[in-house]
Amino acid sequence: MKRTLVSAAVCSVATAALIYAGYANAKTDNNKVANIDNGLQSTPAGWQLVKQTFQLHVPKNGKALSQLIIDAPSTVAVSNDIDVLDDKGQKIKINISLKSKRIVIDFPEPVTSSTTKLQINLNKVQQPILGSNSIYHLSAKVVGNDVEIPVGIAQFSPF
Question: Which residue range is the domain that position 35 belongs to?
Fold first, then answer.
């Protein structure tokens, strides 16, 4: 009985010391990040800068697109360095607004059904080297309508 009580006391003291040390020593630098979860410091994870590309198919008889909305996962940091190309590889003029993890790509000239697909290049994305897949949720707005229409997801694996 005493042995169990002593073991419980030792575990409690060790846990309290780990929580305090993790909280007091959380540091970050340009190449690594330390995360605090419930007061404990996790092992620093490496980050990498990547380019993520996906294609969006435009319906042939659909209305023209006025916006593309991309909800980025919490596990990545996305910049506003984004290119959108048409099916011939030509850059399309866009305006970008980045609000937290939401990217809004506004098309000054609506994208019509004559463009069968768009290639979206997210050029400077910081993602962890290890971890789960990054899943982006995509929606669009068509000309004359302010309703966001879900169009799918884009999923990327860490390296």
Answer: 2-41
Q: What is the pLDDT of residue 150?
A: 93
Six-digit token pair at 66? 């006025």
Q: What is the tens place of the pLDDT at every residue in 82-102?
A: 999 998 999 999 999 998 899
* Tens digit of each residue's pLDDT (9 = 90 or more) over 30-54: 433 333 333 333 334 577 888 899 8
CATH number, position 68: 2.60.40.740
| Co-location of 90 and 142 in the same domain | yes
